[in-house]
What does this fold into?
Amino acid sequence: MFYQFPENFTWGVATAAAQIEGGAYEDGRGLSIWDVFAGIPGAIKKGGRPEVACDSYHLVERDVEMMKELGINSYRFSFSWSRILPDGTGKVNEAGIAYYKKLIRLLKENGIRPNATMYHWDLPYQLQLQGGFGNRQIVSWFTEYAKVLLDNFGDDVDFWVTFNEPIATYVGYSAGFFAPGLHNEKYARQALHHLLLCHGEAVKLFRTYHFEHAKIGIVVDIWKHYPGRPGNEEDEAMALTGNEIRGFGMFLHPLFLGGYSKELLAYFHENDLMPVVEEGDFETIRQPIDFYGLNFYNGLYDDAEKMREREKQRKEGGNYQDRPESHPEAVCDVLHMLVEKYHLNIPIYITENGLPYDDEEGKEANLNDDRRIDYVKDVLKWAHKAIEEGIDLRGYYLWSLMDNFEWSAGYCARYGLYYTDYETLERIPKKSAKWYADVTRRNGFEA
Ligand code: NOJ
It folds into this structure.
């Protein structure tokens, strides 16, 4: 059967500044929290550092050539805050502005619409030294940064995203395995509250420009948890926690329904984690936006019994990190949930989806990535079903254009349509790149 997508469907690929740009010390760029975090021994698998990454700072022409080969009509990337404002605030780095002007010009010359994220996890280190997102002043720091971006690139960007996957800040402040590497849940909860305020203020600022084309939204990843054994109390509680206390609910409730959910509030009160909320904060956070970006990777089934078993095996030396079960069908349910539970009546884009290969699988296996093609097909089939059922899904961005710096997993997890040779920086198309080019050309695929 041929899965035909609607006319004008957006087909894209996604990347992020800290993961591909490199050029960490060039042309006046300041340090980000990931540059510093990656310097801590043991923080990143096999000691990977983002200093060179894919060197897109110098190889941007090649990147755009690859996008042409793929036939995509939109490219999702992020701005590096510390390349634009090396200290986070104050002096603007003109070389940084020039870099993104060039990228956007190249995209436009090739009919590729820019989808640009203001913040994809790489806070300027200077701001972290002042408390980062834990300091309420971040709201004015971020608004200043957003203004520089909007002044310089405003209507040249079709899709503005304020934040990508805000949960990364929670992980970085409370669980320690993302930058800045802190272990303080109270601070993390406060940081997330401030982050949501930054989003709201940036949307308010955006509206003052009255752009002709540009739209604004946010990207929140959804890993929906389901009880492994429906009706089992323990599993139900685990799934609820995964969704409302530690997952998407912490963002979607304040963004679309207003305030924190009753489950989250109960958890805050029981654990003395209630963030400081000032009058008017929830109104600021709940700004109408133009589109929603869904990062979808998997659905998760929580089975307390199986988790305990896995935990035991781990202690006995078994492999805890077994390949997770794959639930591509969850994307359809998640899309419906956005409309039915969170009342979204704006266009939705899948702003990320993909599958990693381990570097250790070797270059040949990495280049012949049938597993990735099969998985993407499965997700797209379920997304197609959602469209048929009336969901206003407008586009799909595959993560990622090329293998890149995968945060704490360093260079070990390869997500690209192009294989990155980190010695030569050559990018080699994988089987999936050819397959995806066919999808974009035919606006659909055979399965
Ligand atoms: C989520 C993030 O937005 C992106 O930076 C990351 O590389 C991919 N998903 C894959 O983990």
Remarks:
- DSSP finds 18 helices and 16 strands in the chain.
- The chain has one domain: 10-446.
- The domain at 10-446 is CATH 3.20.20.80 (TIM Barrel).
- Confidence is low (pLDDT under 50) at residues 317-323.
